[in-house]
Design goal:
By secondary structure, the protein is mostly helical. It has five helices and two strands. It has two domains: 61 residues; 74 residues. The N terminus is likely disordered.
Length: 170
């Protein structure tokens, strides 16, 4: 395919063969298949970019053109994530989002800065949903612990009442 490809087009019941020459950045069919297979096996965009000597953006674009959902790929983080000892409050997270909104309203921001602000907005949505679930689960857990305690107290009372000798009054 590097030298060109043949495309068949139908035009008013006549078949016309058109010779199209592939450009310098064209992908040979074997590489396309290999790219798709590696991507489906979980190879990162960065690793694919390195292998094929192209940018991660070019790899993403090619995969999207081939009909693959690149946005659904797993998140890769370079380095280690530091887990906080306590979750930030919703108020703290809202302050970060508010700062991002104010920053986004300023003129002259570069593409990278805008992408970072967009990432903050996306992470907020995930945090808000996760926090809502966490709070819900915490309430359920607290209620279960309370019920367990009451059940234990009732079981002790029942045991005591069964051990107390009953007097027959006749």
């Amino acid at each position: 395919m590097a030298s060109g490809s043949t495309v068949t087009e139908k035009e008013k019941n006549n078949t016309v063969t058109v010779k199209r020459h592939a450009g310098p950045g064209a992908w040979p069919r074997g590489q396309e298949k290999e790219l798709v297979n590696l991507f489906r096996k979980g190879t990162s965009l960065e690793a694919l970019a390195h292998k094929y000597r192209r940018s991660p953006a070019a790899i993403r674009q090619k995969l999207e053109r081939l009909g693959l959902n690149v946005m659904a790929t797993k998140l890769e983080v370079s380095g280690q994530l530091e887990f906080p000892k306590e979750l930030p409050s919703l108020e703290e997270v809202l302050k970060i989002v508010a700062a991002a909104i104010f920053k986004a309203c300023q003129g002259g921001l570069g593409k990278t800065e805008l992408q970072r602000l967009d990432t903050i907005a996306t992470l907020y949505k995930a945090y808000a949903a996760g926090l809502e679930q966490y709070v819900g689960f915490s309430k359920i857990e607290a209620r279960l612990l309370e019920m367990e305690k009451k059940y234990g107290e009732l079981a002790k009372e029942k045991t005591k009442s069964n051990q107390t000798p009953k007097r027959n009054i006749t």
